[in-house]
Prior knowledge:
Layout: E1 2-9, H1 14-25, E2 32-35, E3 41-46, H2 52-61, E4 65-68
Antiparallel strand pairs: 1-3, 1-4, 2-3
Amino acid sequence: MAANEYQVTGMTCGHCEMSVREEVSKVPGVEEVEVSAQTGKLIVSGPGEIDDAKILAAVEEAGYTAVRA
């Protein structure tokens, strides 16, 4: 199981977390999404390699920015 960690900026509340979780969970190969507005951490797991570009694009689609941690 692969797990990638990202630092997301701009999240302030539970609604922000939900928006990021919804978009990131649509990325092929993603099985689990943990996101915290308090810490800004996003942890994405799946059975195989996870495409950073697709995760970053999904976070941007949700209205935030992220970098690989």
